[in-house]
């Protein structure tokens, strides 16, 4: 019996070997695609081509008796790896001539990440960090764009110190996670083109393909258009947003999220229950939750405090959140199931169809997590 | 130029067709493996075999110049689908003869899910729901095991009503998400074998392979061993836990998690910012967070209130959480960055190496989410 099973397993191994060999061949073709795209100055990520490919892959998977949903996941995974591979290569340049780009805070993670991509597209990159202010004249000379990427608490002073050295034709841009105030300061300090940017990812991503770049035009958008076009050639999704609306959303997306994770982690510590112990009792969904909280504490305390306590408006929002919690906690103290269910239903109405989408997407995540780590 | 690209894309399509054809062949072999395992009475999920397979797959992927980490994800995905396929087939039976299993609350999702698996293993399944109490004598007659799977607020009364009808040799088990109190009630009401169970997944899973089943032995564990062996043959991971430790962990895993999601969702509603709008400003990590919160609101309000307000101890824990929040919120009001960073560092020490693991696992999730949905 076990011999029959062993023989079947050898057949599986042999099929898997053939799949690996085909994936290798696929990589070789993808390398040629990279070259061809580079020559034709085409971006890495073409949404239209991906969805077309997904449709035909689903159809052909169904013809082979495979589950089309599963097959699409499978294809997305292959295509993700393919984009990653293309991103290690060179990129087309958005401009006929090489541009000079200066990163202020050039030794930070985001600066180094983007410097790599500018260089891989044939531009020239300079770096100005804490110890380089004595060379500010030569570093800003004939530079086409300056990108300020320093911790938020230093952004205002850096802009004031830097701006007087810039030529009126230089694009002044920033990567700060608050936009309204910083944009105002840049416009006041620099008479030339101004562009607010906020890349919605960390410095640890392997490539920029599919990543979201939020853009707030400040002054003379035509002069900085090449910057956004260049990001598009790296495969980034670019979205123009209103600075005030951006900041309001960020109070929740960055402020509240980090604060909630702190509350969660801090209370686990208060209860003295180690995350490793809780994993013994975890459903895949709580495992995912715990991982999302735990990742915060692999980061830097000062950066964390900067994000949560960023500005008065964010602090007021968190105070309002505390008051909100107070009201809900009263329902718990009163063991008021009816009021609790009412609150729940009101939120359900507010979430509407999104709840169904969330169930599906998070269900996908949870299955992946169970496949990979359980 | 675009002709060269089109030709390369045709080559990719042709390679993808060959991969699909191999996946189909693989499914055929997996179907034979299922049959062989059934004949040999072997479980679907064999952790040892999976890790061995993963090691050799990584090695061979590296030989083909593919990233071993990526290749392992890829393999886990193929193997997950393979387990799912095996789970649609029949299962070996843990006992020489068919057992009779009665589900109380038999029309609920968990009952129906497990009833399916018992039947697929050759056992006989009965169902007792609200309207069947007039037939309780015949339904409990000669039954080998009774599994109580009713909403938590009805568990105690159902046990009291049911127990007098059971033969002293019948195993009394339950699926309730609280263990200490329910186990005490079962032991008091029934003189025969007692086993507390808590499957750590919802009724919507496609198969039980790799799912966690927590077990609290009550009385005469030898008499109920076949139940756990049967679950093992479905591929479940079985963990014996102390009922009190289980309940303490569940206050956090179920109670606090659901409560935090309510706080988050309820505050978004208070702010009037629709989830769809926030997605426009979301990093993949916040998207994952929002999906984890949003999924709660695709569920039932009453079930939700039952989970959060389950018992006095859980409510006291949530009150303690409110007080804890109060203390942290004071740091926000005072804009006390230093104390905030201190709190952060204390939690980081408490999380220890787990934070690194969390960064890696959640990073994996976030990449999958970006590949699939962005």
Description:
2 copies of one chain form a homodimer. Chain A has 374 residues and is of the alpha/beta class. Helices cover 63% and strands 10% of the residues of chain A. Chain A folds into 3 domains: 2-87, Chorismate Mutase Domain, subunit A (Up-down Bundle), CATH 1.20.59.10; 100-241, 3-Layer(aba) Sandwich (Rossmann fold), CATH 3.40.50.720; 246-373. In chain A, strand 4 (171-174), helix 7 (180-189) and strand 5 form a beta-alpha-beta unit. In chain A, helix 2 runs antiparallel to helix 3. The longest helix of chain A has 39 residues, at 2-40. Chain A is globular and about 75 Å long. The two termini of chain A are 29 Å apart.
Widest beta sheet: strand line-up of chain A: 2-1-3-4-5-6-7
Q: What name is given to the CATH topology of the largest domain in chain A?
A: Rossmann fold
Distance between the termini of chain A: 29 Å
The CATH architecture of the largest domain in chain A can be named as 3-Layer(aba) Sandwich
Q: What key attributes describe this structure?
A:
homodimer; 7 strands; Rossmann fold; 7-stranded mixed β-sheet; alpha/beta; 374 residues; globular; Chorismate Mutase Domain, subunit A; 3 domains
Short description:
2 copies of one chain form a homodimer. Chain A is of the alpha/beta class.
How do the strands and helices of this protein lay out in sequence?
2 copies of one chain form a homodimer.
Chain A: H1 2-40, H2 47-63, H3 68-87, E1 100-104, H4 109-120, E2 124-128, H5 136-140, E3 145-148, H6 152-162, E4 171-174, H7 180-189, E5 194-199, E6 212-219, H8 221-233, E7 237-240, H9 243-271, H10 275-279, H11 284-294, H12 301-308, H13 312-333, H14 337-351, H15 354-373
Parallel strand pairs in A: 1-2, 1-3, 3-4, 4-5, 6-7
Antiparallel strand pairs in A: 5-6
Helix pairs in contact in A: 1-3, 2-3, 6-7, 9-13, 11-15
């Amino acid at each position: 019996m076990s011999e029959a099973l062993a023989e079947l397993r050898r057949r599986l191994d042999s099929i898997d070997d053939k799949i690996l060999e085909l994936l290798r061949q696929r990589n070789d073709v993808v390398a040629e695609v990279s070259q061809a795209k580079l020559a034709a100055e085409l971006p890495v990520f073409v949404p239209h081509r991906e969805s077309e490919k997904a449709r035909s892959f689903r159809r052909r998977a169904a013809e082979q008796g495979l589950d089309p949903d599963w097959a699409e996941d499978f294809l997305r995974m292959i295509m993700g790896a393919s984009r990653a591979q293309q991103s290690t290569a060179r990129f087309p340049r958005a401009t006929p001539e090489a541009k000079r780009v200066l990163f202020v805070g050039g030794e930070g993670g985001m600066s180094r990440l983007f410097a790599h991509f500018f260089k891989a597209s044939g531009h020239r990159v300079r770096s100005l960090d804490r110890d380089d202010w004595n060379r500010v004249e030569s570093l800003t000379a004939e530079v086409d764009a300056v990108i300020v990427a320093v911790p938020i608490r230093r952004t205002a002073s850096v802009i004031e110190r830097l701006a007087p050295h810039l030529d009126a034709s230089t694009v002044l841009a920033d990567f700060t996670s608050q936009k309204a105030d910083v944009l105002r300061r840049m416009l006041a300090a620099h008479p030339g083109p101004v562009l607010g940017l906020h890349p919605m990812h960390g410095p640890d991503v392997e490539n920029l393909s599919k990543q979201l770049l939020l853009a707030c035009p400040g002054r003379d958008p035509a002069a900085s258009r090449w910057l956004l076009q260049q990001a598009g050639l790296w495969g980034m999704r670019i979205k123009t947003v209103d600075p005030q609306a951006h900041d309001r959303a960020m109070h929740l997306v960055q402020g509240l999220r980090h604060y909630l994770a702190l509350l969660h982690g801090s209370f686990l510590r208060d209860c003295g229950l180690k995350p490793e112990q809780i994993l013994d009792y975890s459903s895949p969904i709580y495992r995912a939750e715990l991982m999302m909280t735990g990742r915060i504490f692999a980061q830097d305390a000062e950066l964390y405090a900067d994000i949560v306590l960023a500005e008065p408006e964010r602090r007021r929002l968190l105070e309002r959140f505390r008051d909100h919690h107070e009201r809900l906690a009263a329902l718990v103290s009163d063991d008021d199931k009816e009021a609790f269910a009412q609150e729940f239903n009101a939120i359900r109405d507010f979430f509407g169809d999104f709840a169904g989408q969330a169930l599906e997407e998070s269900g996908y995540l949870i299955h992946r997590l169970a496949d990979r780590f359980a």
